[in-house]
Amino acid sequence: MVTRRSVLGGVLGASGAGLLTAGGLVPLLRARAGGSDLAPVAGSRAVAVPPAFSVRMPLLPQLSPVSTLGGQDTYLVTVKEVAREIIPGVQTKVLTYDGHFPGPVLRARSGRKVVIRHRNNLTMPISCHLHGGSVTPENDGGPMDTFAPGRDRTYTYPNQQPGATLWFHDHAHHMESEHVYRGLSGSYLLTDDTERALPLPGGAYEVPIALRDAHFDAAGQLVYEMDDMGRSTILANGRPVPYFEVAARKYRFRLLNSSNMRFFQLRLSDGGQIVQIGTDGGLLERPVTTDTVGLSPAERADVVIDFSRYPVGTKIVLENTLGPETPDKVGRVLRFDVVRKAADTSRVPDVLRSLPPMPRATVQRSIVLSMDEDGRQEPRAYMDGKVWDAERIDQSIAYGSSEVWTVTNANKIIPHNFHMHLVQFRVLERNGAPVGPAEAGLKDTVRLFPGETVKLHATFDSYRGTYVYHCHLLDHSAMGMMANFRVR
To answer: Taking the complete model, does pTM exceed 0.85, yes or no?
Structure first.
């Protein structure tokens, strides 16, 4: 059952263990070394997880279509509860697409339709939202557009958009947070001719990685409580802090933060270079060389790491430098073990693609995200001071218009992010200054630390209908931080 726990009960009780503060998320390097004062969820104890880097990171399974006739790829997917091994030797009950935890990868092509028929074998209603997809309202998998246990639902995705690292997940309101936490998410990798023409790493050297956190009880079962700050086991492709064997050559990693609440700030343990080539909405115009990559919940980053600079036998840790919790618990994500040499003809070109110019914006809107942070037992979350109402239209938008939305996180302690259905937008400014190159591409989700403001440019020229925008810290949207917009 979904319950609600005070955010500040976990935040203010942490005594420095990677706190959320007015300045954002405290780096783990400033966290107290001696553990956490976080109160455990009532009646639960954490099962012993294996030592870091003692299990192998698996590759995500790939869905295969049952038909490729008629100019479209057709898939059948069964949504069901199964038991899977996350912690070695322990069977954990999870919610899955076709029995896969974490969810599978579906590869699609721009301009080619995908049709997916879902069968709901759970005991609760569900929906399926293609996050980042440009689709009609009836195929958007909105919060109230659910289908019941024992029923089928077909979604059609036209894929009339550039290649991008998308993902899909449950969106049934008041249940989306728990359903996604228990496993209902998967990757949707959309490619196009521009991307396929580039000499980027591919095949076995293109690896999707789904990152998230989890909280296990003494029996190794997932514990779900709203706003649980004790989700301190980091999973990469469904395994706790695993290792992954690589060759001494370039790899392309499709990173997805599929957590409900956790922000990641990723770096290599030696401070080595990471080349970011894409974000939520696909390739950047030019690659960005960096030593750190930030991901709020639902954000994606497309990166290339060149392991040829390391001798065989090197072990490099992908670290996380943000809390909450202490470095020994959440500071390590996975380890890359360089085990062999390999030929490599791939490269990262200086130019990846051209983005179309932004049309002139004719409408300005202001959006405020906020949440009770005064310690009350049942905090609520708000969009412009209101909790979500399925019947209320909060923004009415003229079809074809371009708009600038100024989005502010009014909280002093709690971070948020902002996700808009239907469109990919451009982030123009953060706190009044132009954004850095890693945020300069197409986006559908953007982080907002406490007190931050971002300015976004979006054009609504694909479909008419009603969609939602919300905080993608799913515990927050389930508590009301969501609103409707209608393209008329």
So the answer is: yes
